[in-house]
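Our consortium's second objective concerns turning raw sequence data into structural hypotheses that experimental partners can test. To show how far this objective has progressed, the report includes one record in full. It was chosen at random from the queue rather than selected for favorable results. The single chain below, 104 residues long, was entered without modification.
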Amino acid sequence: MSVAQVFETLSQNFNADAASGLDLVFQFAIEDDSTYHLVINDGTCQLVEGENDDPSVTLIMNTDTLKGIVSGETDGMQAFMAGQLRAEGDMMLATKLGELFTMG
């Protein structure tokens, strides 16, 4: 599965109810691929390839870590503690991903 397909799967598993009233940008800098960002705005989710000028949080990882987290095989917190995942910006927002998207 390509990185683009992983993000398509992620956006298809979006929980609009959990995003009600939110206005956030989750940026994913994939070290061995492209950068993508998800724009969450009051119950909607838009996937965009490329960088955002002002992301709420940027998650930095490689393709394998991304695929593991989205498939549910890798716990995001464990990946962070092991140094496989880094965050810049509001790191607490990264914990919201599990509420906004069905993983696994």
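The partners drew two points from this record. The chain has four helices and five strands. The CA atoms of residues 23 and 41 lie 4 Å apart. Both points have been shared with the crystallography group to help prioritize constructs.
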